[in-house]
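Review this chain:
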Amino acid sequence: EMARYGVEWEDAPYFLPSYEWYNRQIADWTTGLGLTLINYSPGTRSHADYTTPDMGTRYLSSDAILESILEYEAADANGLNGFILLMHIGTAPQRTDKLYDRLGALLDSLVARGYSFERIDELLE
């Protein structure tokens, strides 16, 4: 299926399950296909950028998400070292407060705190 979109199998060795939900069966299936199962690092709310205002109390604004990332970084002894932050490249039109529009500012803030960034394949070596 990926080949239809110009993505070769060997160029996509990682699998992030839908909704980031998996169990032993999914883990075994992933391994059987020769893929590496990945997930985001828990502790921040970066993955909540899919939420929309109509979700009530489950909605998180981009400000709240960014605050959760920076608060975690400041509070944890290891900061965000080795972290995988999940952000969605597409979100519902109802979410006009797009977190990806703030990605540059977040990266600049983290660089100012001494962080550098690695591709996922380099991080997982």
Notes: DSSP finds four helices and two strands in the chain. The chain has a mean pLDDT of 94. The chain has two domains: 1-38, 40-125.
